[in-house]
Amino acid sequence: MKPRHTTDWFVPVHSIGDIAAPRIGRLPDGRRVGIAFTSLANLRIASGGRQEWMRLTEEALRETLAPLGVTRIQLDPVLVDLQPAYPAEPALVH
User: Fold this and answer.
1) Is the torsion defined by CA of 17, 18, 19, 20 positive or negative?
2) Residue 91 counted as domain residue
3) Is residue 88 part of a domain?
4) Who contacts 32 (Cβ-Cβ below 8 Å, separation ≥6)?
5) Which tens digit of pLDDT belongs to each residue from 52-84?
6) CA atoms within 13 A on the CB side of 14
7) What is the Cα gyration radius of the chain?
8) Which end of the chain lies in a sparser environment, N or C, as judged by fewer CB atoms within 10 Å?
């Protein structure tokens, strides 16, 4: 898919040490969705001043989300329920 946007996006991330993973959100029907913002101000309004972030192109974000099966990116959402793209700790199976 050819990117539609040519400017970098501000992408909320969850970092552990030197590793950062984009945060994802959930649609009302439960599907996961990538989150990105066109400006740092928009990210701060939706996520708060302490949210970590990185700048990514649309193509780079899509490539990062593809292995997770996330194909939709919500640009400049107003209310964000953020989750790490990868769990911080491995899940325990009993």
Assistant:
1) positive
2) no
3) no
4) 24, 25, 26, 68, 69, 70, 83
5) 999 999 999 999 999 999 999 999 987 555 555
6) 13
7) 13
8) C
Buried-exposed string 53-78: b where 16+ CB fall within 10 A, e elsewhere? beebbbebbbebbeeeebeebeeebe
Q: Which are the contacts of 84, defined by CB distance < 8 A and separation ≥ 6?
A: 14, 21, 23, 24
Q: Is 60 left (phi over 0), alpha (psi -120 to 50) or beta?
A: alpha
pLDDT at 81: 56
For residue 5, what are the CA distances in angstroms to 15, 33, 65, 87?
25, 18, 17, 29
